[in-house]
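Quick one, T. Sequence first:
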Amino acid sequence: MLSALTFRRRFSDLSEQEVLALAISSEEDDARIYRSFAERLRGAYPASAAVFDGMAIEEDSHRHRLIDLHVARFGAVIPLIRREHVAGFYARRPVWLSQTLSLETIRGEAAAMEKTAQDFYTRAAARTGDAATRKLLGDLAAAEAGHEAHAVGLEAEHLSPDARSGEDQAAKRQFILTWVQPGLAGLMDGSVSTLAPIFATAFATGDTWTTFLVGSAASVGAGISMGFTEAAHDDGVLSGRGSPLKRGVASGAMTTVGGMGHALPYLITDFWTATSLAFVIVFVELWAIAWIQNRYMETPFLRAALQVVLGGALVFAAGVLIGGG
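Structure tokens:
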């Protein structure tokens, strides 16, 4: 690693030929990234895939013009120099390596790609005193700005309002299936299922520290169990629910959060103060679950509230009765 950093060149030390070669390789890499985005989107978002196909073709055309300029000025042999060979040169985040990129993530990354390239060339042009190099860098900055304008034109061509609305709805549905649904199931399980052991322990022992330990164990254990169950029972290929890892993390984390919410008050040494605070937190958790069901799952709020509060009240009553007996 140290040797790789040692042999990186400073951008200010590059010759005009090397700057041109760097621009050529960068355009080539960006075209490949856009094509990888298009392939990821083609099945679910064909209109957006067409936009990225067009952006890749535009990158190719800029690369061809840069190559023609290199041949005219320096000959046919282009030096092998890439972004990673230049210290301080803008880098591309390897997000395209992920198999589960969201539509909005891809759109945002594409916009950032064009903007960082344009900004870099603009700043580089402002720092050089050589007229030819300044012109070259200015041309590259203008080309990157042109990419952004071309992307807007491609979106207007391929992404009609109906097409964009349809893709946005599909992306929202994917977000709900991958994150909201398993997270909501975990929050419900963690908030409701841990009520009985936590309050049974509290009223059976009257000891806040013991109650906290039992509540923590129940919450973490339930989170691990729910996370593994969610990730293992569906790989997302046939159901279209997305990455099992993401769903497992969402379910496991929210299960733990749901249980720990009313376990943490028992760090307070006074029993009734801790129990009163736990009651308040349980109330907030249950109403939060009802709100999420209404907001994302389109369940009528009163029905969601009745289901959640009734279920929680029954489990809570069971815990109090068992612990008080």
